[in-house]
Amino acid sequence: MNDSNTGAALIDGKAFSANLVAQVAERVRALRDDHHLTPGLAVVLVGEDPASQVYVRNKHKRTVEAGMRSFEHTLDASVTEAELLTLIGGLNDDPEVHGILVQLPLPRHIDAGKVIEAIRPDKDVDGFHPWNVGMLASGGRGMVPCTPLGCMMMLKDRVPDLSGKRAIVVGRSNIVGKPMAHLLLAENCTVTIAHSRTRDLPDEVRRADIVVAAVGRPEMVRGDWIKPGAVVIDVGINRVVLPDGKTRLVGDVQFEEARKVASAITPVPGGVGPMTIACLLRNTVVAAARQHRIALPDGWE
Ligand code: NDP
Does pLDDT of 1 surpass 50? Predict the structure, then answer.
């Protein structure tokens, strides 16, 4: 696939996510028409972090566009942990709410772990509850975190049989790196998880057929780290300031260098980013169907 004249194929996250959202909307229609069920997503925002406000607005808009119910709960930064837990208890019991997402980060006085554990695991559409983490690690059927799920969908579209491939995940966070590694392992990849203490990182990356970068360091992964023909999934979103004072979004991979060597690569922006919300909508549909014991078509579970 890699052509030295044109470089790597671009994995178009925008097109991929548009397609996934269309599938979600179709499934929502079917659930409504055949089962009188409208999936509902509750998003809880605490405080006034501008980035979080943008994410929450976006999630609301996309949820409604897909034909689902959206319940937004915006709480003052001074809300107590007990008040937040009471709200979550109410959402757990609300039959119109099938998915619950608490926008992170939370203010310091609130224990995020405790809040996540309070969400009913079958409504935990972020897949962060320890029960879902355990299900993913043990090969069970839980909720899979949205960003790694989106990465996996795009990767499998490009490389349908991942069995036996060497994969490296750079980054070991609970929301991206670790779940991504479990998903790759479930596809029978030989998985390396790299982090800030990894020795000879370029050397480790050079051995991989699949590179997933989730570090949060602008353009850290260089072109000469990439094995010719590897597939590169760049999760990083970093805003950098250019010499003229303007800003630009870049990934964790030096895109122009890597695209000359890789067989396929996700751009930033327009790669992994758009898939995350699409997967959140998908998880909400899956959660609603499971809660009502409705079978979904192949490819949904
Ligand atoms: P975290 O900061 O939680 O984790 C970063 C990981 O990178 C850590 O495991 C850290 O290692 C590792 N790391 C840091 N420096 C190095 C280094 N020099 N060499 C090797 N590893 C290193 O980040 P997230 O996982 O939350 O996010 C990663 C990136 O993905 C960010 O740019 C974020 O914005 C983006 N992101 C994008 C999303 C999307 O929708 N596209 C969603 C979520 C995140 P250690 O554990 O040793 O500290």
Answer: no
Ligand 1 centroid to residue 19 C-alpha, Å: 27
Atom of ligand 1 nearest to the CA of 216: 32
241: part of which helix (H) or strand (E)? strand 238-241
Distance from Cα 77 to the centre of ligand 1, integer Å: 26
pLDDT digits (tens, 9 = 90+) for 67-119: 999 999 999 999 999 999 999 999 999 999 999 999 999 999 999 999 999 99
What pTM did the predictor assign?
0.96
pLDDT at site 301: 81
Instruction: Find the catalytic residue in 126, 209, 234, 252.
Output: 126
Q: How far is the C-alpha of 293 from the C-alpha of 301, rounded, in Å?
A: 13
